[in-house]
């Protein structure tokens, strides 16, 4: 399964979501002007990335159950 290209894409998408989340938490914890200007934008990026990751996971599961 680890050599499956779609699995690798799914794993990278999940890691991307985690990176965005950690970046957002870090900027929130630091506070300051950067956080005031960009907190909502960073969390929006996380939501978009998370939606993409969930869609890829669903596609992966669908294709594996269909025998593809």
Distance between the termini: 12 Å
Mass-distribution shape: elongated
Overall average residue pLDDT: 92
Structural class, judged by helices and strands? mainly alpha
Uncertain parts: none
InterPro entries: Hypoxia_induced_domain
Keywords: Membrane, Transmembrane, Transmembrane helix
Transmembrane segments: 6-25, 45-63
Domain HIG1: 1-68
Keywords:
2 helices, elongated, single chain, mainly alpha, 68 residues
Description:
The chain crosses the membrane at residues 6-25, 45-63. Pfam families: HIG_1_N. InterPro entries: Hypoxia_induced_domain. Residues 1-68 form the HIG1 domain. This is HIG1 domain-containing protein. It is elongated, with a radius of gyration of 15 Å. 88% of the residues lie in helices and 0% in strands. It has one domain (5-65). The protein has helices spanning 5-30, 32-65. The model has no long low-confidence stretch (mean pLDDT 92). It contains two helices and no strands. It has 68 residues and is an all-alpha fold.
Question: Topology, pairings included?
Answer:
Elements: H1 5-30, H2 32-65
Short description:
With 68 residues, the chain is mainly alpha-helical.
């Amino acid at each position: 399964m680890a050599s499956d290209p779609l699995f690798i894409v799914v794993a990278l998408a999940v890691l991307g979501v985690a990176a965005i989340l950690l970046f957002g938490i870090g900027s929130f914890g630091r506070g300051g002007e950067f956080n005031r200007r960009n907190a909502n934008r960073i969390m929006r990026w996380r939501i978009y990335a998370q939606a993409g990751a969930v869609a890829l996971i669903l596609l992966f599961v669908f294709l594996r159950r269909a025998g593809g």
